[in-house]
Specification:
single chain, about 300 residues, alpha/beta, 7-stranded mixed β-sheet, 9 helices, 11 strands, about 25% strand, globular
């Protein structure tokens, strides 16, 4: 949107991000990613509710190539099953940012096309016999205007520096009446309060999406919002959720403020103590009726017209 005055929520020194990667022995992934930038500010747009890091510095192709060698791509995602339920009558599906090509295995029928700019991912998908093209969505949309019955992008939008431009190209490739399905990490979840999470800060994630931001997206992009669906907490995230919930209860009112990075010794001790206290909570959270909102939210839109 065109808000005049974004609010500053917090900031992070890029050397702190480098330190976090170094701690996980992943320093090589972010070499030359910040190009002399010393600090990133987390800003919030009060008009559309989008939060974003400025300057906008998304990861380069070499960053994701390196991340892939560390097992970056997840083989199964809960949102794949959810999305497939909306695509039973979509004979021609485009997935933008298809990664390792797991999603087409959830589709019952129809024609599938995948796009990815990661050459290694494209090569591996083609070895599986998938129709995957190493091409940016803007080029593909120019060559295939209003061609697809559905366009999907899973865990992609938060990585791009120009989400409006990216989505406009996705919409251009979509037939009138077709569906656009987007999944992103849910900022209306425990993720908002997790500090030092390297996969939720640049150069990995540059935008943070709340339900309100996803709802406003429909108006800004000329779409109809059909549904927002939060996944339940997945077992792989139970430990992080429980420790974060305990930490929030211990620090009280201060927990309401997002804190993307905190290298203070006291914070490290608090994290360790919170984890120990959360162990009994983790057992309960693995019971289906007790599961709260999890990591991801799925937004289903449709393009007006016939």
């Amino acid at each position: 949107c065109k808000a005049d005055r974004p609010e500053q929520v917090s900031s992070i020194k890029t050397r702190e991000i480098t330190r976090l990667y170094k701690k996980k022995k992943m320093t090589r992934a972010i070499e030359n990613e910040f190009d002399g930038v010393d600090q990133l500010d987390l800003l919030h747009c009060p008009a559309c509710d989008l939060s974003y890091f400025y300057p906008l510095l998304p990861g380069s192709g070499s960053y994701y190539e390196t991340m892939q060698t560390w097992g970056y791509y997840v083989h199964e995602k809960y949102e794949y099953k959810l999305a497939a339920g909306f695509l039973k009558n979509a004979p021609n599906v485009l997935e933008v940012g298809c990664g390792n090509g797991i999603f087409p295995g959830y589709l019952d029928s129809g024609t599938y096309t995948g796009l990815d700019i990661n050459e290694r991912a494209v090569r591996e998908c083609r070895e599986k016999g998938l129709n995957v093209i190493g091409q940016p969505v803007e080029e593909h949309a120019r060559e295939h205007p209003e061609h697809y019955d559905a366009v999907c992008c899973f865990q992609v939008l938060e990585h791009v520096a120009d989400p409006a431009g990216f989505l406009s190209h996705c919409i251009a490739a979509l037939k009138k009446g077709g569906r656009l399905i987007v999944s992103v990490p849910a900022y209306d979840s425990y993720l908002r309060y997790v500090s030092n999470a390297i996969l939720n800060i640049p150069p990995h994630h540059v935008t943070l999406w709340s339900d309100k931001a996803l709802t406003n997206l429909a108006r800004l992009m000329g779409l109809n919002l059909e549904q927002l669906i939060h996944e339940p907490l997945q077992d792989v995230h139970v430990k992080r959720y429980a420790a974060t919930a305990v930490k929030m209860s211990l620090i009280g009112e201060h927990s309401k403020k997002a804190n993307v990075a905190n290298s203070a010794k006291g914070n490290k001790l608090l994290d360790a103590f919170s984890y120990l206290l959360s162990i009994p909570v983790q057992r309960g959270l693995k019971k289906q009726p007790l599961k709260p909102h999890g990591h991801t939210v799925l937004a289903v839109y449709n393009k007006p017209g016939q």
